[in-house]
Amino acid sequence: KDNNYRSILKELAYIYDESLPSNIPKEKVNILIKEKIITMSDKILEIMRTSYKDKLKYFIETNIEKYLEMLKLGIIICYKEELLEILDNNEILEDYKIDLLKIISDSISLINKNYSLEIQKYILKEHYDETDFEYLVENYDKYDKVIKENIYKIVLKDVDKFSRVRIQIPK
């Protein structure tokens, strides 16, 4: 059934780039995204954000290059929720994530995140979330050497705050 749907759509060569009907069956939306029938544009992204929220992650993942290009040009904005989804998404290449981090200015928490070393390092350097201070100090030993160096630099910048941190030492 889906193969027939896919074949007919390809033959029609129709593309949604300005508007999107709100009555597309949810199970067909992924096919339309995968086949590049729904394409990334500011208008389509807004429709996906409001009418097809459950498909937004896949839509951005599939169109990450265009998404980043539109962000760089200021055509769209990246919501914090989308940013975190992209950073958490293992299907998106690290280079795209770094590109995204270069564009945005939000602080990003590392608490309970499994980002790659490069992503962690970049976040600590450019998007450090001050509310992570205690967490980073308390979990210092769990981090890689490179990340420890970054945490050390953060502590040096705020020694007073460090002196107030009550570290739980396991017995």
Task: Give the topology.
Blueprint: H1 2-12, H2 26-34, H3 42-51, H4 53-62, H5 64-72, H6 80-88, H7 94-103, H8 117-126, H9 133-138, H10 145-157, H11 159-164
Helix pairs in contact: 2-4, 3-4, 5-7, 7-8, 8-10
Structure description:
By secondary structure, this protein is mostly helical. It has 11 helices and no strands. Helix 5 runs parallel beside helix 7 (94-103), helix 7 packs parallel to helix 8 and helix 8 packs parallel to helix 10.
Question: Could you tell me the radius of gyration in angstroms?
Answer: 21 Å
H and E order: HHHHHHHHHHH
Strand residues, percent: under 5%
Helical content band? 55-70%
Q: Which blocks of ≥5 consecutive residues have pLDDT under 50?
A: none
Keywords:
171 residues, mainly alpha, elongated
Q: Can I get a quick summary?
A:
With 171 residues, the protein is mainly alpha-helical. It contains eleven helices and no strands.
